[in-house]
Amino acid sequence: MALEARAEASDRRREPVRVGLLGCGTVGTGVVKLLRHNAEMLARKLGTRLELVAVADRSLKPQPSLGLSRALIMRDPLELAARADVDIVVELLGGRDPARSAILIALENGKDVVTANKALLAEDGEQIFRAAAERGLAVGFEASVGGGVPIIRILREALAADRQRAVYGIVNGTCNYILTRMSEQGSEFSAVLKQAQCSGLAEADPTLDIDGHDAAHKLCLLVTLAFGVMLKPDQVYTEGISKIEPLDVACATELGFALKLLAIAKDDDGAIEARVHPTMTPLSHLLSGVRDAFNAIYIQSEALGSSMYFGLGAGQMPTASAVAADILESARRRLCGGRWAANPLGYPMQSIRPARVKSMDDVVCEYYLRFMAADRPGVLGAIASVLGRCGISLASVIQRERGGAAAVPVIMRTHEARERDLKLALGEIQKLSVVKARPVFIRIEEHL
Amino acid sequence: MALEARAEASDRRREPVRVGLLGCGTVGTGVVKLLRHNAEMLARKLGTRLELVAVADRSLKPQPSLGLSRALIMRDPLELAARADVDIVVELLGGRDPARSAILIALENGKDVVTANKALLAEDGEQIFRAAAERGLAVGFEASVGGGVPIIRILREALAADRQRAVYGIVNGTCNYILTRMSEQGSEFSAVLKQAQCSGLAEADPTLDIDGHDAAHKLCLLVTLAFGVMLKPDQVYTEGISKIEPLDVACATELGFALKLLAIAKDDDGAIEARVHPTMTPLSHLLSGVRDAFNAIYIQSEALGSSMYFGLGAGQMPTASAVAADILESARRRLCGGRWAANPLGYPMQSIRPARVKSMDDVVCEYYLRFMAADRPGVLGAIASVLGRCGISLASVIQRERGGAAAVPVIMRTHEARERDLKLALGEIQKLSVVKARPVFIRIEEHL
After folding, report:
1. Domain B360-444 listed as CATH 3.30.70.260
2. Which of B45, B111, B194, B218 is catalytic?
């Protein structure tokens, strides 16, 4: 009882922790809602209130129902970032500047920073993280990869004493939604993309998502957290989903696979394999059960073995929940004193060296192949001979729909082969007169 | 460059963080291996070495291959817990005493504590957590629930700004292994249990596991982390898996369900529903794909929506990886100064009140029912009438194998019903002369 009374008395004396928000768009509004709706619970967890003291936004109008009074709203993010009455600056402006300048000003002024700005971190992460580390301040960026899936914390803290072997991520909800719909409806890519755009699950300009570049950006952060080396997005082999045909999705199911856009990174004895591409995964594998706009990151670690983390990778409230968790963590730390304990990327910035990247030519996996070939005897033999000569052995062959058509699909599944050998074989096969179109190949991850 | 040089110079000046280990059995040996094998990586992350300075174990012999020299080994855990040259005490003794005394002595002496001792925390957690909080010290217990699944951190930190609605956990690997084998082999419970014991996946005395009590203990910790209230294991409705028959497992599959031992907690407007029992989950749900000895915790949160965390819940190295992550976190904090930022259970101890527990009678779910009944006309009608009178409506009926046998199984699936009404109905049905055995009922979670 004496202890309780003391603790409560000390709580009453505590000043609130003051939050300033830069940018009040979709996610920002979600954060405002969450801080307001959960104010009592957050105060109980902290022993003091989290108080939103200022919002800098170019066009925000007062919204009394959210507690956004006129007095709270300002226009200049740089001015907010320097305000003496703010402890934690939450950057949700997006883009490079003024986001970058605001974050650096906030750190210079001793404030912790929370951001969901993946693009900015990809460009200027090093400068920002160093500025924070120098002053023992926190930079929370949980929302920047996997949205509500706490993969940053998990790699940086929960798996931090273990060595990671491989990371397989479904980290782009738009692509996963499109591939799920294509599989379940048998529809064309373009039709599903249109559906997704109508329902707000794809951007008006979806290029970054469907070409795999968004996933490649996220993979770079995951590589550093998992393996302690730095990778640039242009070092990631990146292939999108726009060329996927319904026929291949159907054949994948027939062969016992789901089709996913995976971001894959492996540490092969110090050489980092990093690639983003459509991938066939066994239907019985947990990753294959990740449907629609959900994200999941599946990790293989030396001591822990397999683990997986699943949740919504985007959307107002899932993203806001990750941002608010970072705010809470910063507030807890400030109340306890001391420097921020975790390096933002798990390793001291100065110890993170550029990755030695494995060439795509040296990657080994199984392949799904589809050839459109003349429907006559000897075709299979001709194709199989080339593959054999290039050292590629076949696990199974499916020849569908005979008769009529000028070209019929010949579907093959290979055993493990080196990408260099496969490319060589496909080049030769394409020259065969019986082969009527560019061969299709999709990588298979059977043993994840 | 100047910054790098400064940081490196400051790292060189850092003293090692010194670890003392109490108990060197299976998990303890795993921790020793991990700290040794990953020493270089851990030193890089910390900027200084993690040094194992003492191991207290009743019967440990020197093992030079693990770096366990004679000089490191002592016998008395209480003596180790008070040693001035130890910063972090890792308690892997198990059981209540001397584990409890050793932890309290360590905290009194300003050391952080890491433990995997779930039973001890269930009994004496409050005292231990308060002693730590009073001194701003850390108590890491990630390994005590879900083994290598970092569910403690996730609930305490990653989901901390959100409100949890429901938690569904596969938190006992032994039960999940047995149910998976029963489903895949069609075997009897007792046969699979024997297999599991032979392969080390079940204890010689498996009672705590198969009766659901281990899961109930873990659920209590999850309830506090998720909802901020305290629950005692005897307040959790607990039903094990030993009465599950292969016929019901087969019928579950036929109806599109997997059978899992789930630990379920829901917050129904302040009333906590907490129960552990065999549960049918839709085959298409991710939880149904969690096979063998794996664990998974599926959470529904207000802002985030659904999320799931999957990994190995037991075993030497998975458990050791969780213990070592806690050691690393403590070491990081010590090097940064300040009190430990997180309350061990997410809320200040003095604010955690006893839960208001919802009576099992008031739980509403769908049910799978099996009656062994005489194979003659009118039976179905008699059973269905009783159910109807009690307000329970049927979703589907399967009548299997007709003819010959004295009693045939009548399988029914209900719509949502109140447990009180179901119990009443089953009591009446059991009295019908056409019903030849005690009715079987298994709860269905269709909408998770």
Report:
1. yes
2. B218
Q: Is B160 an interface residue toward A (CB < 8 Å)?
A: yes
Q: How far, CA to CA in Å, does B422 sit from each of A48, A215, B441?
A: 46, 50, 9
Residues of B in contact with A346 (CB under 8 A): 45
Task: Tell me the shortest Cα–Cα distance from B402 to chain A, in angstroms.
Answer: 34
Question: Amino acid identity of B289?
Answer: G
Residues B352-398 pLDDT 10s: 999 999 999 999 999 999 999 998 888 999 999 999 999 999 999 98
* R_g of chain B computed on alpha carbons: 25
Residue B303 sits at the chain A interface (C-beta within 8 Å): yes
Distance from CA of A169 to the nearest CA of B (A): 14
Q: How many CB atoms within 10 Å of residue A94?
A: 17
CATH homologous superfamily for A151-313? Dihydrodipicolinate Reductase; domain 2 (3.30.360.10)
Domain A2-147+317-352 grouped into CATH 3.90.1210.10: no
End-to-end CA distance of chain B: 53
The amino acid present at A245, given as its one-letter code, is E
Q: Where in chain B is the domain with CATH 3.30.360.10?
A: 151-313
Q: Give residue A402's pLDDT.
A: 61
Q: pLDDT tens, B54-94?
A: 999 999 999 999 999 999 999 999 999 999 999 999 999 99
Nearest-10 Cα torsion for B377, B381, B384, B389:
-150
Mean pLDDT score of chain B, rounded to an integer?
93
Residue of A321, A345, A352, A448 to mutate, testing the B interface (most B Cβ within 10 Å of its Cβ): A321
In the residue annotation, A218 being an active-site residue is answered as yes
| pLDDT at A404 (0 to 100) | 67
- pLDDT band per the 50, 70, 90 thresholds, residue B4: very low
